[in-house]
Amino acid sequence: MSLMKIRHSKIKYIIIHHSVCQYENSESKIDSATFQTNYLYSNVMQLKQPDVNYHYIIDKIKDEYYITIGRPLFSLCDFPDISPDYNRSSIHIALLGSYDFKIVERRTYEILSYRLINSLLKQFSLNPSRILLHKDISDNKTLTCPGDFFDKNALISNIRRFIIK
Ligand SMILES: [Zn+2]
């Protein structure tokens, strides 16, 4: 896939996805752990290519959610349906699988907030208003990413709960 593009712009946004927006194989919608987790690790660890097009991926392994680094923050992810300004200045985070079909568990929002997003907000001096959903900024008006079941208000309330002052 794409060669690594180095980031030169300041980080201004955090964009939330579910991984079917990039990796559409239908099995993964039902069982993301079986059909996507191995792919994720083999790309990062064996091929040494930054071709997972997200900076972070959250994935349930057995009974808990874990965050995986897909692409280092100094390289850009590239989405043809969002404007270059967002492409240059965003951190992309994906929930593994499809949330058009599955409810997002409360634990997902907690882990996302507490272990990842709150520290990114602090590190890059961002306000929670800089957290956007892929569908909010896409040219594709039928896009549902990060899924019909993703509740942005639930994410924001967890972020406020764990905010680092
Ligand atoms: Zn997306």
Topology order in helix (H) and strand (E) letters: EEHHEEEHEHEHH
Tell me which oligomeric state these chains represent.
Answer: single chain
Superfamily (CATH H level) name? Peptidoglycan recognition protein-like
Any low-confidence stretches, pLDDT <50, length ≥5?
none
Determine the CATH topology.
Answer: Lysozyme-like
How would you explain this protein's 3D organization?
The protein is an alpha/beta fold and 165 residues long. It has one domain: Peptidoglycan recognition protein-like (Lysozyme-like). It is 36% helix and 19% strand. It has a five-stranded mixed sheet, with helices on both faces. Strands 1-5 form a two-stranded antiparallel sheet. Strand 3 and strand 4 form a beta hairpin. Helix 4 packs across helix 6. The longest helix has 18 residues. The chain is globular, with a radius of gyration of 15 Å. The structure holds zinc ion.
Present the secondary structure layout.
Layout: E1 5-6, E2 13-18, H1 26-30, H2 32-47, E3 56-61, E4 64-69, E5 75-76, H3 84-89, E6 90-95, H4 106-123, E7 131-133, H5 134-137, H6 152-161
Parallel strand pairs: 2-6, 2-7, 3-6
Antiparallel strand pairs: 1-5, 3-4
Helix pairs in contact: 4-6
Bound molecules: zinc ion.
